[in-house]
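re the bet — no i am not wrong, look at it urself. input seq straight from the record:
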Amino acid sequence: MLRRDALVSGFHFADSMDAVLRLMEKYADVPMSFADACLVRMTETLNDATLLTTDSDFQIYRRHGRQIIPCVSPR
């Protein structure tokens, strides 16, 4: 899908590096992976983001410090 340009990511780590690293530091006790931190940051850049995940850690993480991350988990 990426090679066919059917899926394009508008996220650029370089633009969000400080925010991603702050998230990883804040949740170091979980611990938060680099990928999880990027996903949380992506939800912060969108007003109506909903994250599709099977990872229960996203129930712990918060966007913008205090907001619950809207998640959909397939069962």
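see?? Residues 20 and 41 are 6 Å apart (CA to CA). told u. also The chain has two helices and four strands. so pay up
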